[in-house]
Write a structure and sequence with these properties.
By secondary structure, the protein is an alpha/beta fold. The chain has 2 domains: about 5-170 and about 290-370, Aminopeptidase (3-Layer(aba) Sandwich), CATH 3.40.630.10; about 175-285, Alpha-Beta Plaits (2-Layer Sandwich), CATH 3.30.70.360. It has 9 helices and 16 strands. It has helices at about 5-15, 25-40, 95-110, 135-140, 200-215, 255-275, 295-305, 320-325, 350-370; strands at about 40-45, 50-55, 65-70, 120-125, 150-155, 165, 170, 175-185, 185-190, 225-230, 240, 240-250, 280-285, 290, 310, 330-335. The strands form 4 sheets. It has an 8-stranded mixed sheet. It has a 4-stranded antiparallel sheet with strand order 10-12-8-13, covered by helices on one side. Strands 7-14 form a two-stranded antiparallel ribbon. Helix 2 runs parallel beside helix 3 (about 95-110). The radius of gyration is 23 Å and the shape is elongated. It starts with a helix and ends with a helix. It binds nickel (II) ion (NI). Nickel (II) ion binds next to loops.
């Protein structure tokens, strides 16, 4: 079978069988078995649900790492595709099935190539979608030891098919996470003066948090504070004793990033106190920003050729940044033109992008080995 058709077939198989972050057992097994089946690769399992394959020429030269993330999301699929998820409540709604298939295709293609020297590493990373992320576990297992350049890509539906973005410098934001627990005396909904209303306090906290970016952060420094969940109460006539909010912050600048937890705590505790309740903050630093190395990006841009497009940095995060802390590299976005955004139940990609992404992996590896050997 032609590699492009094979990649589509692999992608559809993965799409049918999504697994959540840190639970990619079948996916990792499928990846490892497929790689073993290609022959000529050293296949390892750096962690329980990740896979590393090495293609070594046995001759001196640089080591280039190519990365794909393999996890899915807890979303019930409504895309209507014939190869939709067979696992209720789980869906490849970010395109990681495509990333995995493209990197498998690239491994197949590179095995058939005459390589000048050096080594190519294929990193199939688990748990990109869930902080603290899988990348750091793989790094700790040594997958980046001796790597000279790391390249990865994300299919991107807001970008039209045929276009590819590789931008030097800061490209994706730091992604951190918080949980706020508001507590107070619960009680009778008809006698609010005998209770402390945690729901009213939580609502005021959500509103108060909007002022952090609007009024407290340097307007020239991008930042996001989003409350993504708010849970409290079970009955219309009961004031609950607890309300729990969770959310995420995004930033690029290190000082802004450091400032955010302090500001969230200040707003939450003060607003809670004003309502006779108290609030406690649990804040977790997640992914560092994705910052593309200018030299590595120039190499990737050469491989992209006239498909190169521009895109402003985005406030999405990605733990590809964990690999970038150990070697210069570039994270590219491949246009996969679709109607619905990533992480949407009706998310679909333009599958033609898979062939493009596969070839770009191959090109980048060949170019890096050629130029750096
Ligand atoms: Ni993604």
């Amino acid at each position: 079978m032609e590699v492009d058709d094979q990649v589509v077939e692999w992608r559809r198989h993965l799409h049918r069988h999504p697994e959540p972050s840190f639970e990619e057992h079948e996916t990792a097994r499928f990846v490892a078995e497929t790689l073993e089946g290609l022959g000529g690769l050293n296949v390892e399992r750096p962690t329980e649900t990740s896979v590393l394959a090495r293609l070594s020429t046995g001759r001196p030269g640089p080591t280039v790492a190519l990365r794909a993330d393999i996890d899915a999301l807890p979303i019930a699929e409504e895309s209507g595709v014939e190869f939709a998820s067979e696992r209720p409540g789980l869906m490849h709604a970010c395109g990681h099935d495509g990333h995995t298939a493209m990197l498998l295709g690239a491994a197949r293609e590179l095995l058939a190539q005459e390589l000048p020297g050096g080594e190519i590493r294929f990193l199939f990373q688990h748990a990109e979608e869930l902080a603290p992320g899988g990348a750091r576990d793989m790094v700790a297992a040594g997958v980046m030891d001796g790597v000279d350049l790391v390249y990865g890509c994300h299919l991107w539906t807001p970008l039209e098919y045929g276009k590819v973005v590789a931008r030097p410098g800061p490209f994706m934001a730091a992604a951190d996470f918080f949980k706020l627990t508001v507590t107070g005396r619960g009680g009778h909904a008809g006698l609010p003066h005998t209770a402390d209303d945690t729901i009213a306090a939580a609502a005021a906290i959500v509103t108060g948090l909007q002022h952090i970016v609007a009024r407290r952060i340097d307007p020239l420094q991008p930042a996001v504070v989003t409350v993504g969940s708010l849970h409290a109460g079970d009955a219309p006539n009961v004031i609950p004793g607890e309300a729990v909010l969770t959310g995420t912050t995004r930033s690029f600048d290190a000082a802004t990033r450091e400032q955010l937890p302090r500001l969230i705590e200040q707003v939450a505790t003060s607003v809670a106190a004003a309502h006779g309740t108290s609030a406690e903050l649990d804040y977790r630093f997640g992914y560092t920003p994705v910052v593309n190395d200018p030299t590595a990006t120039a190499l990737v841009q050469d491989a992209i050729g006239d498909r190169l497009a521009d895109l402003k940095p985005i406030m999405g995060g990605d733990d590809f940044s964990a690999f970038l802390q150990h070697a210069p590299g570039c994270y590219a976005f491949i246009g996969a033109g679709g109607e619905f955004p990533h992480h949407h139940p009706r998310f679909r990609i333009d599958e033609r992008a898979l062939a493009l992404g596969t070839r770009l992996h191959v090109q980048v590896a060949l170019q890096a080995l050629g130029e750096m050997t």
